[in-house]
Amino acid sequence: MRQKRPLSVILVRQLMKPAFPAAIMLTFLVIATGLKLGLDSEEDAQVRQTLASETESLARQLEKDFLNHVIALRRMAARLALQPDMPEAIWQEDARNYLQDFQTFQAIEWIDRDFIIRWVEPLEGNRGAQGFNVAFSDERRAALIQARQTGNPDISGVIQLTQGGAGLVVYAPVGSGAANKGFIAGVFRMEKLSDALILPHIHGNFSLELLEDGEVAFSLPARTATNNSFSYTAQANLPSVQWSLRVTPTNTWVERYRSNWPWATFLSMLALGLLVSFTALLVQVVLKRKQDLLKTRQDLEDEINQRVAIQQDLARLESTDILTGLANRRFFMEDLEHTLLQADRQMRQVGLIMLDLDRFQMLNDSLGHQFGDELLIKVSERLDQLSDERVMVGYAGGDEFMVCQQHVEDIDDVIHLLGQIKACFSKPFEIDNEKHNVTATMGVAVFPQSGMDADILLRNADIALYRAKEQGRNSYQFYTEGMQEREVRRLELDTDLSEALARNQFELYFQPQLDLVTSRAGSVEALIRWNHPQRGLVPPIEFIPLAEESGRITEIGRWVIRAACQQLRLWRGTPLEHLRIAINLSGRELGEADLPDYLARCFEEYSVEPHQLEIELTEESFIANVEHNHEQMRRISQLGVHLAIDDFGVGYSSLGYLRDFTVDLLKIDRSFITDVTERHDDAVITRAVINLAHNLGIRVVAEGVETEEQLLFLKQHNCDMAQGYYMSRPVPAADLPGVIARGLLSVSLQ
Fold it and tell me: Which positions are tagged coiled coil (predicted)?
């Protein structure tokens, strides 16, 4: 094993890389760019702050000047209210004085109570307005009537003037209510108003837009190009109109607030970066000469080390599995024999653990042998981290691993090691950029209690492993007396299973599914039973795992399909002809490419309509090989077969396959139904699953219904069907007509 290089050597190697001076230059470039962007940002903030101040000042000046004009018109209206018989000539003289004092007005008008313009000053350029009805729309009439009643002035907003062009009119009521004598109106052209009210320097430095109710009512462009990245909008508080001023500065004005400091800083940092990079390059040249002198010596040392490594590899190959890098079975067993001899002399215990990967065969068949090899390698890497002077890890072949623990003082030492092994599987394994959660089942045999030599100890650990699998995966089991008898019985049962198909020892039992809308049985689930000639009725829990291990599960699945089709044909013309049969298929069966074709042949042979058959698949079957299963289910669905998800909620519960796969039915697992009326969380989950399925157009079946309270709960929350012992246990086909005829399904749903 090569010695770890000192940190100083690693540092020198990094400094000698040709990219190092470039990295220095790039670092300075990033710093220079950051400084420049920061200074630019500060200058932009200053520009925006100054622009906001200018705009707010302009808005306040506009408010002040405009209100002065409104006050002047109200004074003129007050005089006319005090002298209602004022001659036109005197009024015109008064209006001319106002026009001279406030040169912003286009014209001053007197409007009678009927909203007709009677007097205009000056007449020149405004004759077209005389006699015009200013209440030219319902909106204007309503506003003027409101002003006449309250005595408050009204502003028209920007409109098209009768005299031509855009402008606005301010109406000052002459008296209010019944005493109103009309209005004194001041007419402004927008061009003249902007020239008079807006500060002169605006024209050279800014473009201006007058916004009324959010829309541009008037715009005053700048004399030069503007910088659209800067603009500011200020509100102008005027009576009865909502005006805003949007100011955009010219490029010339923005440049006044910019300096050369950002660019000076940027160029200074670049120059400093060039200097440091050149210095680093000189250092590299010096160090390289020294490196060349040491290279010959290093080459000689490498050749010597290579010869030593070759010798070590040859010794390792004799004892190591090529794929996993762990001790192979032969070397592990030899070491175990030696360990047991020492333990016998020292009167110590030795723990042997047999480890089997759960679902490995299914993953290997579905995702390919390359995937299986990669998974074995990654599992081996994690297990190998447990190796020390007391623990040895070996590869037994297939998906099995062996772990030997020496010098066991107490059984707790073995349990602690089992916990460490389980921790190796706590995180998912990433293969081909996809994460896979894999668990392991373990069997444990302890020397000398479970065996006195290596072969017996290994056999008993293997028996314990199978026992752990039967009780549930992702667990462990210690070997105890009596396990061997059970294993012998299991092997006998496995042998008999091969003859069961040939001798037609299987039988289908049927459990009705209650339709909660019609209170009738609309379908039944087919459950396989084994009529063993010596052992009697063998439940599926005892022989289905054996069938999956031996690969005979596919043959059994095909038998179930044919038996279900045959039963549907026998029910034709009877009171049960409306029933649909649901059958369960494993992931291995779904993986058979000719499954859709086999189904089609059975339908044709027994003259069965495909919609009378329903296939139930577990969530695990969906996830195992998504791409292949999607195509399989699409072909099966096209035949007209109903597809259902069994035991929903206890597996992956991924919403993705509900969206991507054609699913007709969802079966809620019995673990949620058992306490649905007592546990709040089970009730919430059950309701959520029902609502989710219905929103996706999927019907729902609840499994494991055993009480009337559970059934009423499901009925109240719109579950479609229910199945369980409360309605009926699974019965042979011969007893099913009697079960339904006796009304065992006629339960109270009120």
Answer: 283-320
